[in-house]
Amino acid sequence: MRRDGTTWVIAGVGGVGGGPPQGHVGRFKPKHPRARVAAAVRMRGNGGNAGSGSTELPEPTCAAAGGSPRTQHDRTLLTRGPYRLCLGGAHAQPNGCPAECRGPRLGETARRRSPHPAPPSERVIAVTTKSDDTVNLEKARQFGRVSEDGHVFVIVDGEEYAVGQLPGASEDEALSYFARKFENVEAQVALLESRLANNAPAADLQKGIASIGSQIGVRNMVGDYSGLQKRLISLAEQIAELGEKQQQARTENRERALAVREEIVAEAEQIAGQDPDQIHWKNSHTRMNELFEAWKKAQREIHLAKSVEDELWKRFRAARTTFDRNRRAHFSQLDDRNARIKRAKEELIARAEELSTSTDWSETSRAYGELMRAWKQVPRGHRREDDKLWARFRAAQDVFFNARHEAEAAQDAVYAENLKVKEALLEEARALLPVEDIEAAKAAFEKILDRWDAAGRVPRNDLRRVDGELRRIQDEINGAEEAKWKRNDPAKAARANSLLAQIEDSLAELEAELAAAEKGGDSKKIAKAKEALEARRAWAATLQGFGN
């Protein structure tokens, strides 16, 4: 089909030049609603050129014309609109040929072998053209011409080559037909150039170059063969350069892909080689899965050499297998350990539940303290299971301690009056401070203690406060008595008086030394004697105050 919508159907024996296979009848729908049969051309010669053969129209034969229904309709038939035209226009009726012709209807493709095949070198072309031709005839005339007998020639590098003949067509129609074929090839070249600019695969472009080269190798079109050949040469060079770049890019991509695979394998081996007792299994398992996904992604993007990829995969698979085996073993041991921990804690829970109903507040509280210490010595198990066990253990304790608190609250209500009595006794005790008469203070405090004991117990929340205040008052009275004793200790006073006598004797000697130094006028001796004399006098004053 032409780019402008013109349709031609070629049927017959596929000879040199790439004609369709024998017996093929094709139909193409043109854009324009009207078309006419321009010619049916029988071309003989090399490559389908009509340079040496004669041109003639076959006789219209069909059942209506006295011929065989399967003679010319199987050879050449053009279907257009509501008409089905025999070769040569034997019938042109609205309903087509008579029924006995049995030619293919609109939209059908007949693939039959003619009982009277043409010679192998013969091609029959049925052509339809449009009245509104879009071919640049001025450009076409620069590279082709049409002879008076209708033969079309192409000019290549100053030489003419016979292209073909369209009997019954005008000069412009004949030239346009063969020029359109050349424009189609130029369009293919332009498409290749566009694909080259878009960095299409060089191998595909090379196939396109080869296909176009085979088409322009036969002089069966009208156009600038030299210019097109130059474009193809330039295009081939660019495609070769592109192929080298793409090959280099593929090599670099494979190297990068190899590096990525090796990194994946190395990290997987590093994870698998960790100490099973120190590895973080959850994070490592997640990372191993991520590495596996990364491997699959890299494998989809770029394939490495089979030997290289197999070797890396074996290493990666071995690392994953080792990791999974260690992980299963670890969690199996962990399950056994958690089971032992659970049994130990359930025993403690059973003991705590037994004690929860006890009313021996003191002994049971100590027993619960021992259970708590034993609980802390048991290692932690599975977090969720451990939390459930702890909740049971804590609930058993709460039963006991809540009952104890309720009992103590009832007792505290009874002890509230005792608290008032002890608060009044504390006021009397505070009046003894500061201590002036030690003996009188001690006697008064002893009476307060007797009344304190007789008052009885106080609420638990106030017990520490009132006892602490009474103890502080007692400590101050005892401290005053101890300080007086230290001051009047006979043994210490005797020792102080003995030392004082010695210091007084040394004072007399130092005074004599000072007088002698002053008499002699020696300033150094005078300063030294004064310093020693002042120190002895200070000691003497201290001992005299202590003795008193």
* Rg, Cα atoms, Å: 62 Å
H/I helix tally: 12
Give the strand order of the largest sheet, numbering strands 1, 2, ... along the chain: 1-5-2
The N- to C-terminal Cα distance equals 141 Å
Strand content: 5-15%
Structure, explained:
- The chain is built from 12 helices and 8 strands.
- By secondary structure, it is mostly helical.
- Strand 7 and strand 8 form a beta hairpin.
- Helix 3 packs antiparallel against helix 4 and helix 6 packs antiparallel against helix 7.
- It is elongated, with a radius of gyration of 62 Å.
Write a concise keyword list for the protein shown above:
single chain, mainly alpha, 8 strands
Topology:
Blueprint: E1 8-12, E2 36-43, E3 77-80, E4 83-86, E5 123-129, H1 137-143, E6 144-146, E7 151-156, E8 159-165, H2 171-197, H3 202-216, H4 225-272, H5 281-301, H6 306-355, H7 361-377, H8 383-430, H9 438-455, H10 460-487, H11 490-520, H12 523-547
What can be said about this structure in brief?
Helices cover 61% and strands 8% of the residues.
